[in-house]
Design brief:
By secondary structure, this protein is an alpha+beta fold. Helix content is about 15%, strand content about 35%. A hairpin with a 4-residue loop joins strand 7 and strand 8. The protein is globular and about 75 Å long.
Length: about 750
């Protein structure tokens, strides 16, 4: 009897600690949930309104069982109907094209209304059609061409075309065709109206060719426009080595212009205001500005009396709002903002009231991102509009007549995830703040052209999407438009992502995350846990909407036998200034202390989490995280996979590390993965695309060199011809990442060379 009991006890123990995962059938199941396949299991995750001209009416395409339908919404009449009779149009198309047409899957995805909603135009292959809805008449037509080239910009009144040629600016009279040269001093790499491109790559065997895109800002009355003159003469390059070019056996070298942190060779720009009637220009009275990712786009007031822009100082410690006199180029510094740490570029916003009589300004000066009302003439603060422990994310619309501002914010609603976006309105004096999107969910808002209505796509990772039409003035529900269909997804056994809240490293602050379980999850078993990390301070890593929650690289990984976790630790975006500043000059923190304590808290609650088997993976800044976690917390993280990691911030594009690390200093070296490569104890797989012009592959090569220098075992995959995003979504990379965790966390051999199929 004792022997029998002993056998039972041993069997129970073994069932708790070991069971079959990472097998061929697990990979087959994971295939359904890959980002390029999972949308076959869902419908209508998002309603994208196509506003008709400048009206509040719109059409949208809704998915049905075997295809799609086109629907028309007349907002003011609260009416929704099919755009046309799909059956009749299919029959008409069959006669024209001489082939069978399914009315539930018409062979086009876009339409354009004409003749006051009487006619729709669309294109099938190279044929343009017009369809008279009431007369059921289908005909071919030749659309009026817009011959604007990428180096041309048409004035709002359609009378003038500004264009660039031979590094200079020209004007063309649309009616007569007469051309006027506006500048003569533009030269190669110091030219007019062509913006800086951080990502343009140049084949060094051919060299750079002048093929400019134009960037100018027209005044609303078409009398003036702003253009920059960009000085790239001292710009430095980074290089890519393409071992597998499209043709030939010789490798290619590509280059792209990229300033690194604290380099002085950053491009410079000057602002000019051009007068169309006089064919003249004035230079804006400001020293050349270092051209890097800074703030919102320059713009004109509605009456064209002023041009305005905000300029961030280098290293993001100061921000100024300038008003420009377009006649003289003179400037007024209306608002000045500074910070001891940095000004988050995403927390910058401004909208003018009554052509600059007042300005509504976003600032984190009181520790939270809020709105402030300024006198546009004197620059004096009138009053703070929003207050409290929540974060204003965007100024959406200003009702000037009634002195109301509409804005999106997070963290205001009690007992809700503080990252959920909601829409609000408030009076300029800070009274009558009103919630306009009431559901406990993430809200994705799109406004009608005149801001009378808005479309609200709301969802959570554990709530399927709904789309509704609401009135903006009070948020009143006009009608429900669409609900997602996820029946096929649920039929696979897929489990909703689980949201959780744990305490941060300080034992006080709530931090938020998600757990993704395999569809065959068994709470009586033990599972390794994999941390999908991205601690980039500009981002929220944990998905909030349903569609972002299923379009990912962690659900398939869970299917082969893991629980995958995402956490937004201290130092990441969209919380208080103090919460965010944890990462300032401290990117090496990677939120690891919060991730580790969070996982331990979850393990105390869930016996199925095996804290002896912890993996981590990430892409870009997340790739840095994965390596840094293994090097700084080897007692906790055992296996890591890093794709496209920016392993040393001294090699990154200037704007990102300068925003979050400040000027170059010893802390850059100390927080580099290269500096601590000798600490590697766990299993590490490095992956990088050789054509990555966002995070140069040299970052991974240099880390590999340091690991070799210290005689450390690691694995390295270079994917030919992949850029930054392609290396993340590469089917081979997905499989190899799975294999790596199966082999080193489950300690079993994965199915050999499993090939994922795209459905």
């Amino acid at each position: 009897m004792r022997k029998t009991y002993l056998i039972i006890i041993i069997a129970l123990i073994l069932s708790k600690v070991s069971f079959s995962q990472g097998k061929f059938e697990d990979y087959q199941r994971a295939e359904k949930f890959l980002h390029f396949n999972i949308y076959n299991l869902v419908q209508n995750l998002y309603l994208n309104p196509n506003w008709i001209d400048k009206t509040n009416d719109f059409w949208y395409k809704t998915e049905i069982e075997n295809g799609h339908k086109f629907l028309l919404v007349l907002s003011s009449e609260n009416e929704i109907t099919p755009v046309f009779d799909h059956q009749k149009l299919a029959i008409a198309l069959e006669k024209k094209l001489d082939k069978e047409i399914n009315p539930d899957s018409l062979p086009f995805s876009k339409i354009k209304f004409k003749d006051n909603l009487k006619t729709v135009a669309f294109k099938i292959d190279s044929i343009n059609f017009k369809y008279d809805i009431k007369k059921n008449k289908l005909s071919e037509y030749t659309p009026q061409k817009d011959d604007l080239k990428k180096n041309e910009s048409k004035s709002p009144d359609d009378k003038w075309i500004a264009f660039v040629k031979n590094y200079n600016l020209y004007l063309r009279d649309v009616k007569t065709g007469e051309e006027f040269q506006l500048t003569t001093d533009g030269i190669d790499h110091y030219d007019y109206a062509t913006p800086l491109s951080w990502y343009k790559i140049v084949d060094e065997s051919v060299g750079n060719t002048y093929d400019p895109e134009i960037y100018i800002e027209w005044s609303p009355d078409s009398k003036k426009f702003m253009a920059i003159k960009l000085d790239r003469r001292n710009a430095k390059k980074l290089y890519l080595y393409q071992s597998l070019p499209e043709e030939g056996m010789r490798a290619k070298v590509w280059s792209y212009e990229r300033a690194l942190p604290s380099e002085k060779s950053i491009p410079l720009q000057k602002f000019y205001i051009f007068d169309v009637e006089n064919k003249s220009n004035v230079k804006v009275d400001l020293e050349p500005i270092e051209d890097y990712w800074s703030s919102f786009a320059p713009a004109w007031t509605k009456d064209g009396s002023k041009f305005y822009f905000a300029q961030m100082a280098r290293y993001y410690k100061a921000l100024d709002l300038f008003f420009v006199d377009p006649e003289t180029g003179g400037i007024d510094n209306i608002i000045h903002e500074d910070a001891k740490t940095m000004i988050e570029y995403q927390m910058v916003g401004c909208k003018l009231v009554n052509n600059g009589e007042k300005a509504i300004w976003m600032s984190e000066r009181d520790g939270w991102s809020h709105l402030y009302l300024y006198d546009g003439k004197t620059g004096n603060l009138i009053n703070q509009i929003t207050k409290g422990k929540f974060v204003v994310q965007q100024i959406n619309y200003i009702d000037e007549k009634n002195e109301i501002v509409y804005f999106t914010a997070v963290g205001h609603e009690k007992d809700r995830d503080p990252y959920f976006k909601h829409l609000y309105k408030i009076r300029f004096d800070g009274t009558e703040m009103t919630l306009l999107s009431p559901e406990d969910a993430e809200h994705e808002i799109q406004f009608s052209p005149d801001y009378s209505y808005f479309i609200d796509n709301y969802s959570r990772v554990d709530l399927k999407p709904n789309a509704v039409l609401r009135r903006l003035s009070d948020g009143k529900l006009i009608r429900e438009l669409q609900e997602a269909n996820i029946d096929k997804l649920l039929a696979t056994g897929w489990k909703y992502t689980e949201r959780f809240t744990v305490k941060a490293r300080d034992g006080k602050t709530d931090i938020y995350g998600i757990l993704q379980y395999p569809s065959n999850f068994n709470s009586e078993k033990k599972y390794p846990i994999i941390d999908n990390s991205y601690s980039g301070p500009q981002a929220v890593n944990v998905p909030k909407s349903f569609r972002r929650g299923i379009w990912n690289d962690w659900t398939p990984l869970a299917e082969v036998g893991f629980i995958v976790i995402r956490i937004d630790g201290m130092g990441t975006a969209m919380r208080s200034k103090a919460f965010h500043d944890i990462s300032y000059m401290n990117l090496g923190d990677i939120g690891a202390a919060d991730h580790i304590t969070g996982i331990k808290q979850l393990a105390e609650k869930h016996s199925f989490i095996d804290t002896n088997k912890i993996g981590i993976f990430g892409h870009s800044a997340g790739g840095y995280d994965a390596v840094h976690a293994l090097l700084t917390h080897p007692e906790f993280y055992k296996v890591g996979v890093a794709t496209a990691g920016n392993h040393d911030h001294r090699m990154a594009k200037a704007w990102w590390p300068e925003q979050y690390m400040g000027a170059l200093g010893d802390h850059y070296t100390e927080q580099s993965n290269l500096s601590i490569a000798q600490n590697l104890e766990g299993k590490l797989l490095l992956i990088h695309g050789d054509m990555d012009n966002n995070v140069n592959p040299a970052s991974t090569y240099r880390l590999a060199a340091e690991l070799i220098k210290h005689n450390k075992d690691f694995d390295l995959i270079i994917t030919p011809n992949d850029n930054h995003g392609e290396a993340w979504g590469n089917k081979y990379v997905i499989r190899r990442r799975m294999d790596y965790f199966v082999k080193h966390l489950w300690n079993i051999e994965p199915p050999k060379e499993f090939e994922f199929i795209e459905y």
